[in-house]
Design brief:
The complex is a heterodimer of chains A (252) and B (403). Chain A has 252 residues and is an alpha/beta fold. In chain A, 37% of the residues lie in helices and 24% in strands. Chain A contains 9 helices and 10 strands. Chain B is mostly helical and 403 residues long. Chain B has a domain of 271 residues. Chain B contains 18 helices and 6 strands. Chain B has a two-stranded antiparallel sheet. In chain B, strands 2-3 form a two-stranded antiparallel sheet. The chains are: A alpha/beta (252), B mainly alpha (403). Chains A and B meet through α2 and α3 of A and α9, α10, α11 and α12 of B.
Chain lengths: 252, 403
């Protein structure tokens, strides 16, 4: 029984079957990659997991509870954090404020009217935020405006914002999309470090096979909305079905 | 001090000093001089407008400045607050305490309903929804709800109103436990005349309290959440924050400020009409905030003060006064200048406001506060000349959405 159990999920957009009978089980404390060619339904699946889309049928259980019909903030409060393809950060706020907000979310829940005390007096929140910034080597940039960060740093900041919530499951949507090779390698190192230090469950959606094979312990291949195979990286590499999905019909 | 950091405390002290000393500061010229007639602004009716509109703009800034949601119907809360206060005068007595309480409560309830509906949309759609609500309120107050609002005559207190708490000998003007709002002390020094009015000081104290609360909100976790909503709503909800109640709370607080402002207007003059809710009144609040500097603490107060000053001073100027100013010039030059300036004064003061607004929005998108900061930076650079300020590039103004 995995921490995330997807069973028989279907999603149609008009005439397009975006997801057809998807079953997926992500075991606790593993890095699980979902790969597949363009249009395979990877992003649709991710959006179902975070509550942005509601599937037509099927069930999604996280940690023993259904996530279907819950709003994104409720799903986040259950313990699922998401890293976006292009980093979603608070560009107009300082780096420090960016990581303080998830600390508040963790401590105070989805809403708390906290209008008179000063942010400066929130010692425990400041402590947590500083600790996570130190962890991702960004403490020196704490007072910088987030919009002034480099792309790589924005990614680190977004990771830090997710990690400080200590999520049970971290979803990563193409974390290296559009990155130069050096940045990609940095991100891989960062994720490996996170994995070793925090023993977190991660679910990665990725195009870049280099990233997938450096990180993943299990891989699910999705094609045309349906999972083809679920295997370890070693067994995926030469798998005929995977080749077929990516390269078309096998040549004789 | 008072839970503020030293910069905010200094700012608060400046505001307190300026408002309390306004009757003196705004009357720099002897009362009978030509300059005094044109430019003195230290008379109670005008000063009341400075602080009441200042309070309104401070409240508006909590919504627009922090969350970026542009309400184009804020005058509705002002109007509702005014009506509530006058009704308290009619039903209970001229004491302003129940009147002010009623203004805040009624405006808050009104804001909960309007906010709940309008906050389902964001951006331009939110603005249009608030505008629609305010115009509906205006139209209702003007016609259908005449039994409550007294239609176009305006709501006022009549001698046959119940006024159940009224005892013999009570003042028959709005008062605070006997302290009449329209009574004042006049201080004559040489040619100068300074008027200290109860009503002005009550409004000023309300404005100072409102300003102080707004500083606390800006620096609080709640204020941080509102700024985060302005910055990125998607990230906010994927961080486990429910943005709806935060927005609604900001909207209601902002509406309550407008309610207090409306209540104060009625306390200064117990007569109110539907035109207080008209969309131009809402637009004026937006202009004040933008002119002064949206999202800054002092900006809206500054904007409100400047607009009300210009409105009163410039609209008083007529062609005779202009001719007086230029009397020392040859006739042809005098006439030319008067002809050029005439459209900008008197009834044309909106033209001046429009030009000023355009100049500010184009050259100082951060409002007059940004202008002040630029000037300040210019001077400090001159004084420190050799100090390199490379470190400030790209550095956030640590935790401060400016002052």
């Amino acid at each position: 029984m995995g921490i995330l159990e997807v069973k028989g999920v279907n999603k149609r957009f008009g005439g397009l079957q975006a997801l057809g009978d998807v079953n997926l089980s992500v075991a606790e404390n593993t890095v699980h990659a979902i790969i597949g060619p363009n249009g395979a339904g990877k992003s649709t699946l991710l959006n179902v997991l975070v509550g942005k889309l509601i599937p037509d049928s099927g069930s999604v259980m996280f940690d023993g509870q259904s996530v279907l019909g819950r709003k994104p903030h409720e799903i986040n409060q259950m313990g699922i954090s998401r890293v976006f393809q292009t980093p979603e950060i608070f560009a107009d706020l300082s780096v420090m404020e960016n990581v303080m907000i998830p600390c508040f979310a963790r401590r105070d829940g989805a809403f708390r009217m906290h209008a008179i005390g000063s942010v400066r007096n929130e010692g425990d929140i400041i402590g947590q935020a500083e600790a996570i910034l130190a962890d991702v080597n960004m403490l020196a940039k704490r007072d910088m405006l987030a919009s002034a960060l480099s792309r790589g740093d924005k990614r680190r900041l977004e990771m830090a914002m997710c990690l400080v919530q200590e999520p049970k499951l971290l979803l990563l949507d193409e974390p290296t999309a559009g990155m130069a090779r050096a940045d990609t390698n940095n991100t891989i190192d960062l994720l490996k470090e996170i994995k070793e230090k925090r023993n977190i469950t991660m679910c990665i959606i990725e195009h870049d096979m280099h990233v997938v094979f450096s990180l993943a312990e299990r891989i699910t291949v999705l094609a045309q909305g349906t999972p083809l195979v679920e295997e370890t990286p070693e067994n995926i590499k030469g798998h005929p079905k995977v080749r077929e999905a990516y390269l078309g019909e096998a040549q004789v | 001090m008072l839970g503020l950091n030293s910069r905010d405390f200094k700012l608060l002290m400046i505001v307190i000093f300026m408002t309390l000393a306004a009757p003196i500061l705004l009357n720099p010229f002897p009362v009978d001089s030509a300059l005094g007639e044109s430019f003195n602004a230290g008379y109670p009716a005008l000063m009341q407008r400075f602080v009441i509109f200042g309070l309104l703009a401070v409240g508006f800034n909590i919504l627009f400045g922090l969350t970026g949601y542009l309400s184009f119907g804020h005058a509705a809360f002002l109007g509702v607050g005014s009506y509530a206060a006058v009704w308290m005068f009619k039903l209970l007595s001229y004491n302003i305490v129940p009147a002010m309480l009623a203004s805040v409560i009624v405006a808050a309830l009104f804001a909960v309903v309007i906010g709940y509906v309008c906050l389902r949309r964001s951006g331009i759609y939110f603005s249009i929804l608030t505008l629609a609500f305010a115009q509906m309120s205006y139209a209702l107050a003007y016609s259908v709800l005449s039994p409550i609002t007294n239609g176009e005559t305006g709501l006022q207190v009549y001698s046959d109103d119940p006024q159940v708490l009224m005892r013999a000998g009570d003042p028959i003007v709005p008062h605070l436990f006997g302290l009449e709002m329209n009574s004042s002390v006049t201080w004559n020094v040489g040619g100068w005349q300074f008027v200290f009015q109860n009503g002005y000081y009550l409004s000023a104290i309300c404005m100072i309290i409102g300003f102080y609360i707004s500083i606390r909100i800006f620096r609080s976790p709640f204020g941080l959440m509102l700024r985060a909503i302005k910055s990125n709503q998607t990230r906010m909800s994927y961080t486990g924050m429910n943005t709806k109640p935060y927005m609604l709370a900001a909207f209601v607080i902002s509406g309550m400020y407008a309610g207090v402002a409306g209540g104060l207007m009625s306390a200064m003059d117990p007569l109110t009409g539907a035109e207080r809710m008209f969309w131009t009144a809402s637009g004026e609040i937006v202009v004040m905030a933008i002119l002064g500097g949206v999202g800054t603490l002092i900006g809206p107060v500054l904007g409100a003060g400047i607009i009300k000053y210009l409105e009163n001073i410039i609209s008083k100027i007529n062609s005779d006064i202009l001719h007086n100013w230029f009397a020392f010039m040859p006739d042809w030059m005098d006439n030319l200048l008067v002809n050029i300036l005439y459209p900008f004064v008197g009834k044309g003061w909106h033209l001046t406001l429009g030009v000023l607004f355009m100049v500010v929005v184009i050259f100082l998108p951060g409002g007059l506060v940004q202008g002040g900061q630029k000037l300040g930076a210019l001077f400090s650079r001159k004084s420190k000349s050799s100090n390199s300020d490379a470190t400030t590039a790209g550095t956030a103004n640590t935790n401060t959405p400016a002052e």
